[in-house]
């Protein structure tokens, strides 16, 4: 479960991450990531619009994305701000497809600013 200290809640945080973050996209989602202060915990936010489906479908997609984010949190516990925007095909994607897209977009986005991350964390997310 994603703890409250790792959840992005403020609209300003979402806007800052989306506007200034490195962007990477796949079929089911678009991921924005920006490095933050290394003493700050990594935060994750999720955007799942009504285009994805009804409330039940949107919540299912959000729950899956939160669980996937917990896995990347183990690799980057501090110093990242991440926003994941689910695209309409995510409604029909299973956990494996979402996880695969997330890992690839996460790796692509973080590689764009890898020099700003500590040397111990430059190996990428644990799989």
Describe what is shown at a glance.
The chain is of the alpha+beta class and 127 residues long. It has helices spanning 11-20, 55-75, 95-111; strands at residues 22-25, 29-35, 43-48, 80-86. Strand 3 (43-48), helix 2 and strand 4 form a beta-alpha-beta unit.
Defining traits:
single chain; Ribosomal Protein S5, domain 2; 4-stranded mixed sheet; 3 helices; globular
What does this structure look like?
This protein is an alpha+beta fold. A four-stranded mixed beta sheet has the order 1-2-4-3, with helices on both faces. The chain is built from three helices and four strands. The protein has one domain (4-111): Ribosomal Protein S5, domain 2, CATH 3.30.230.10. It has helices spanning 11-20, 55-75, 95-111; strands spanning 22-25, 29-35, 43-48, 80-86. The radius of gyration is 14 Å and the shape is globular.
- Supply the CATH class: Alpha Beta
The N- and C-terminal alpha carbons lie at a distance of 18 Å
- CA radius of gyration is 14 Å
Main beta-sheet annotation: 4 strands, mixed
CATH architecture: 2-Layer Sandwich
Report the mean per-residue pLDDT as an integer: 88
> Structural class from helices and strands?
alpha+beta
State the oligomer: single chain
Q: Could you list the spans in which at least 5 consecutive residues all have pLDDT below 50?
A: none
What form results from the Cα inertia axes? globular
Proportion of strand residues: 15-25%
Task: Please give the order of strands in the largest beta sheet.
Answer: 1-2-4-3
Number of domains: 1
CATH level 3 topology? Ribosomal Protein S5, domain 2
| Element string (H = helix, E = strand) | HEEEHEH
What count of helical segments does DSSP give? 3
Q: What's the number of extended β-strand segments?
A: 4
């Amino acid at each position: 479960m994603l703890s409250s200290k790792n959840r992005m809640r403020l609209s300003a945080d979402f806007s800052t991450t989306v506007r200034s973050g490195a962007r990477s996209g796949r079929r089911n989602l678009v991921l924005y990531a920006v490095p933050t202060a290394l003493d700050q915990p990594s935060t994750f936010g999720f955007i799942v619009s009504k285009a994805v489906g009804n409330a039940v479908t949107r919540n299912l997609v959000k729950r899956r994305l939160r669980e996937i984010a917990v896995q990347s949190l183990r690799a980057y516990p501090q110093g990242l701000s991440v926003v994941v925007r689910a695209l309409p095909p995510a409604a029909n994607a299973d956990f494996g497809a979402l996880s695969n897209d997330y890992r690839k977009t996460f790796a692509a986005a973080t590689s764009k600013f890898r020099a700003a991350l500590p040397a111990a964390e430059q190996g990428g997310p644990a799989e």
